[in-house]
Amino acid sequence: MIFGSKGLVFLFNASKKQRVPFVSLRVLSSVSGSSSSATVLLPQCLGELFARPPRLNSDVTVQGWIKAVRVQKNIAFMDISDGTTYQNLMCVIPPELASNLKTGESIQIRGLWCESKGGKQKYELKIPKDYKISDEFDNCIKVIGTVPENYPLQKKFHTQQFLRTIPHLRWKTNVLSSILRFRSHVETSLIAFFNEKNFIKTNPPLITSSDCEGAGELFKIESTSNEKNPTEKFFGKDSYLTVSTQLHLEVLCMALSRVWTLSPCFRAEESSTNRHLSEFWMLEAEIAFINDVRQLTKFSELMIKHVVRTLLDDSSEIGKNLIESRRGRAVEEAIKIREKWNFLLSKDEWDCITYTEAIDILQKAEADGIVKFKFKPTWGASLQSEHEKWLAGEYFKSPVSVTDYPIELKPFYMKINNDKKTVACFDLLVPEIGELVGGSIREHDLFKLSNEMTRRNMKVDDLNWYIDLRSNGSVPHGGFGMGFERLLCYLGNIENIRDVIPFPRSAETLDC
Amino acid sequence: MIFGSKGLVFLFNASKKQRVPFVSLRVLSSVSGSSSSATVLLPQCLGELFARPPRLNSDVTVQGWIKAVRVQKNIAFMDISDGTTYQNLMCVIPPELASNLKTGESIQIRGLWCESKGGKQKYELKIPKDYKISDEFDNCIKVIGTVPENYPLQKKFHTQQFLRTIPHLRWKTNVLSSILRFRSHVETSLIAFFNEKNFIKTNPPLITSSDCEGAGELFKIESTSNEKNPTEKFFGKDSYLTVSTQLHLEVLCMALSRVWTLSPCFRAEESSTNRHLSEFWMLEAEIAFINDVRQLTKFSELMIKHVVRTLLDDSSEIGKNLIESRRGRAVEEAIKIREKWNFLLSKDEWDCITYTEAIDILQKAEADGIVKFKFKPTWGASLQSEHEKWLAGEYFKSPVSVTDYPIELKPFYMKINNDKKTVACFDLLVPEIGELVGGSIREHDLFKLSNEMTRRNMKVDDLNWYIDLRSNGSVPHGGFGMGFERLLCYLGNIENIRDVIPFPRSAETLDC
């Protein structure tokens, strides 16, 4: 017997209505010398089955996990899912076949592909009482893998908080698996967008010797074989995990003009919030021959709108995947998400204000008693998360770009405006999340860049290669970074960033 | 004046044939308060221009870097490139405009879009002697960024070895920039393949607490803020950079059935070869409901053939990009690459042998005096790189899968065959490279997996979550990993893995 752990494998033959020993199927036959006869490449998955439904009343074999079983007197219903689509397959079977089946078990089932009369779904898999399967298949339901009595994912509502305590099992739930499919779809949509715009996707390094943002909170890395000899360094010098790939992207931008990446970045941030991770994926883009920050705000708006358009495209299942899995939990939530997507496309151009205007709005709102902030909005001080969320969520009720922040709030590489007080940068703020995208025009003039680095007392040695770009055919350029997980949270109405990445990493959290 | 470093910006007006001060173009206008008037989103790039050529004899403005200038008595030729396509734009200009232009400089040029009489290219940009440009543009050539006298990338042959010494500039060369475009195209092609097959692209973690392969050679990571206090651990335990995402992919496979990733992996390998990196990108896929290693060999063959088919697709520029950039250097090389691609598709199914058969072939070849190996091929010992390369390159002259290696050569998670001596695994060997893909059916039976871990004296604590997958609806499954850079080397006929990744990392190498 090949399948099933713990010897709890039972098989049923509907026509004989009795337990029979398991006989292996040819497709899944035993592997001895595995280079034996060729087999069917991959067994059909539910995603394929729903996309290209078989002939009605034809025999169909599927595999998946049981999401729920309801046994009535004369009939039993079972939902199975294999995670390749948001749709469960409803199986209508004789009750005696279902009595031992449990939620969470993996099974193989063979039956007739029928139109469903229930209305909720178009098709169902039916095992009639007198179902005769072909000689090749002796049984119509086979348990592949069992579950323990206390299997945690019973058919009932689970809080995300509880699910985070079982990180190796939680993706089996419909809501969370739909988020992983959503993540994959959004990435594909971004790839299409950047390809269409002649961008090259590239992979800057994760191991670096420099601290791009100068913000500290780095992870240091070293080979375990040098652990006992701290003077030996694997790379010949101290090495860190990157916090942003921007400086390296600029190198590639000076060769390819339009580059982007979707790359892991790392921050050793001690604080634990629902929008920070120690390991996250960042989309960064760098564009040559631009010199106006409005080109960047507009471009990043186009990028996000492109993704939203893909999600709303009724000819694909991509948006439905997320919405339908929510509808199962709460209809209002599903409606809200679709409304948000429609709203994001409804405005021709999202709002854009300067930092100075933003401070004015915030101060006036506080003076008028409209809102009370914990941190007083002051020109020269950072916009706090509460300010960002209020601006986008309450004042503009829409994504809004804030441009031209004071020099001292931003890193050394940003282009200083003619006022000598602000830099040509922007943050795109969105309701609920706050900062989603941040970018700037970069200083491409050697002299000005060097001056600013000197003024900031920066160690220049590690960045000689970066500075040298400015003497070898330098061109005006700019770019931006967007936290990929934040985009997913925003577009998917997902509260906690830990639920949009398979294995979230943060201080004290390294469970599996 | 906005553009240009070092104040070396000169501008020419062809009609007046004299230097004039630079007047900024509206599109690239000065940024003061950058939230001013909206501007053209992104300036046109060469990729767009060649894909959708403008009307003949219309005025066209482009920006890019000078690849070469040839000044003759009555005419000058200049090639410019912006890296968005393999094609240079040839500019035909009055010699007096070209006399001060240098290879490597970034320029903006305006002229007439004309059919080219040269034959090598279809179009060219022409500045006739009497060219009158519109009022808006006072000048037809503008130097944006200059280069020093010793600019290293003069128009001549550079060895890759030399280019690796200027890691921040080398991607400006045609051959290397074509490799980055190639990399991007191949990734897009893989995404299309996996989407079509209902796989979900996902991102397993890079920071882990376990050593998946048990092979050592790990990088350890720690927050810099804990440097002085080694008992404090950011994650509460020792943490490492992943060497393979497989174990985590298996978690997701048990929820989504078909998952894949293209993810950075890390190995602190001290040895420096032309096919190893400390930081590399690995494609890994994990598939539920399969139990025959031949499903995996066949599937990975389909995957690679899909990419090759994309490269050979004449309706796109994707394959041409690489081939044409090589042709510039050596016609034979370009022909060889195309021949290889055609060859890879010519066989219906690539060869597949067992490890035992492979050892027989190697031993017989040595006994017959056909080949002499440094390492004697022996059953039970690893296949050495020389064996792999000879099998694929000399004996089969084609990619070949070797399956069913001895248990002791492979990790704990592989399914043990009925012979109890071998495991259901495979390596796909290819000419020149050796191992390109490696995979296996995984042991999905709790009891057998635990037994094997005990037999190997493995610490089980860190992998409880992995083992627990086997008691919660376990299903037969398998997967494989493929070094993304190795695939690029193989398909692109590129000798050194350092030339297919933007910033290669290996022992003692962390230049920029």
Compact description:
The structure is a homodimer of 512-residue chains. With 512 residues, chain A is of the alpha+beta class. Helices cover 28% and strands 21% of the residues of chain A.
Describe the structure.
- The structure is a homodimer of 512-residue chains.
- The first copy, chain A, is of the alpha+beta class and 512 residues long.
- Chain A folds into two domains: 46-156, Beta Barrel (OB fold (Dihydrolipoamide Acetyltransferase, E2P)), CATH 2.40.50; 171-210 and 243-442 and 475-499, 2-Layer Sandwich (BirA Bifunctional Protein, domain 2), CATH 3.30.930.
- In chain A, 28% of the residues lie in helices and 21% in strands.
- Chain A has helices at residues 46-51, 95-98, 160-163, 174-196, 246-256, 293-312, 318-327, 331-346, 355-367, 385-395, 446-455, 464-468, 484-492; strands at residues 11-13, 18-20, 59-71, 76-81, 89-93, 106-115, 123-126, 141-145, 200-201, 207-208, 219-223, 239-241, 258-266, 279-288, 351-354, 400-403, 425-430, 434-442, 477-483.
- Chain A has an eight-stranded mixed β-sheet. In chain A, strands 3-4-5-7-6 form a five-stranded mixed beta barrel. A three-stranded antiparallel β-sheet of chain A has the order 10-12-11, with no helix packed on it.
- In chain A, a hairpin with a 7-residue loop joins strand 4 and strand 5.
- In chain A, helix 4 crosses helix 6 (293-312), helix 4 (174-196) packs antiparallel against helix 7 and helix 7 runs antiparallel to helix 8 (331-346).
- Chain A is elongated, with a radius of gyration of 28 Å.
- In chain A, 49% of the residues are buried.
- Mean pLDDT of chain A is 89; it is low at 1-39.
- Chains A and B meet through strand 3, helix 4, strand 9, strand 10 and strand 11 of A and strand 3, helix 4, strand 9, strand 10 and strand 11 of B.
- Strand 11 of chain A pairs antiparallel with strand 11 (219-223) of chain B, so a sheet runs across the interface.
